[in-house]
Amino acid sequence: MTVFESIVHINKPVSGIYQFLSDLNNHQQLMPPQVQDWRSTADEASFSIQNMAKLRLGVQNRVENTEITIVPTEQPPFKVMLKWQLAQESDYTSVQFTIAAELNMMMKMLASGPLQKLADHQTQALAELFR
């Protein structure tokens, strides 16, 4: 698995950030403009990435104020798992977003840049929302 990570520190309590991230309806606010046709419930989201693929994701696991794991609910172009990990530090919350993808060598060359950008974009958008 190829792993893409992005970490931010947010000066808010972990509980509010967890509540936001645990509802997939809110994740549309974290997506870049290339993500289109967004449809979601609290537990599932489907969307298309402009000129690329359609994805349908669902929450696999929630650990209150600690972790949210999101996986495809339909066959994706490649195996992928998204994980949000939260930790309350003394005066801020540490938020780590990880995308783990099973990429062959060709896909790795094509997708590594966009997947890292996606991870960074989502954590930065989250930090902006909680400013």
UniProtKB/TrEMBL annotation:
<protein>
    <submittedName>
        <fullName>SRPBCC family protein</fullName>
    </submittedName>
</protein>
<dbReference type="InterPro" id="IPR023393">
    <property type="entry name" value="START-like_dom_sf"/>
</dbReference>
